[in-house]
Amino acid sequence: MSACKSAFTLRRELGMFLAGLACTLATVGLAQAQAQPQTQVWPAHPVKLISPWPAGGSNDTFSRLIATRLTTTLGQPVIVENRPGASGTLGVSQVARSPADGYTLVMGSSPTHATALSIYPQLSYHPLKDFAPVTLVGSSANGLVVHPSVPANSVAELIALAKARPGKLSYASTGSGSSQHLSAELFKVMTGVDMLHVPYKGAAPAVSDIVAGHVNLGFHNLVDVLPHVKAGTLRLLAVTSAQRTKALPDTPTIAEAGVPGYMAEVWFGVFAPAKTPRPLIDRLHREISAALAEPEIRARFDASGMDVVGSGPDAFARYVQEEITKWSDIVRRADVKPN
Fold first, then answer.
1. Is residue 198 predicted with pLDDT exceeding 80?
2. Of 83, 90, 150, whose CA–CA distance to 120 is shortest?
3. How many CB atoms are closer than 10 A to CB 318?
4. Which of 124, 133, 192, 322 is deepest in the core (most CB within 10 A)?
5. CA distance linking residue 237 with residue 151, whole number of Å
């Protein structure tokens, strides 16, 4: 009798297990079926790529290069929208609150996703928790440039001049916490010089005022200053990267020019709002990587001094975390405050 009961109990438990398994599989299948239409038809209408800086700067330039190519490969317009303000954090915060459907992206950078968290106590977004990293587009050196009226033809001469005139030399940046700002602050910390910070709301007005002689110098992205260097309206002393750039093989790094260990780079990468479906993130990564491999686009990046990366979403997330850790220490040491 007990054996019969055991067999009956076994059959009942097996039946309940199979029923539960069937229910689970059906639920998973339903979820997949519901998710597939979203990813299969995407994009069904135009995609926005937010550039959180003014038009004409490097972020805007790189955003438009990628958007033009994606418009062709995705079959829908990819529209670049400039939403500047608060050192890029204004436009980024708006994207953080956007639907996670793949239709709103942002060209983030080291100021918005590596340093802002340390500088702004009330930052309205978290660089990683509120975003899904898509790909690290590339990284670039800033160029240390001076107005031709500044009597310094090398980094060593600039340091000597700044020490002879403490607080008198001024440098332009694109805002507190920007790569231009922190490149200069790192320079100040490592050389012991005192220079006046003049923040602007973008690269174009900052560089324009250096060219006009209203500000003495700046640490600016090469794409923003090279035309002026070639025209002779700015003098390039060095680059901020660890190695010399391919675009300027004869220009020394700041480390080579007398500040051992100095290194500061600006990077750009595409982010989507957190919880964007992974299939959309993976497709975006593939499409952007293909765009970066196009000879014409690669040539434009190379000419600007940008080293193309195109890393995957997971590697990009790890890189952002490493950058947050690195720059938080520099922000603390330089006592960087918001504008």
1. yes
2. 90
3. 11
4. 133
5. 12
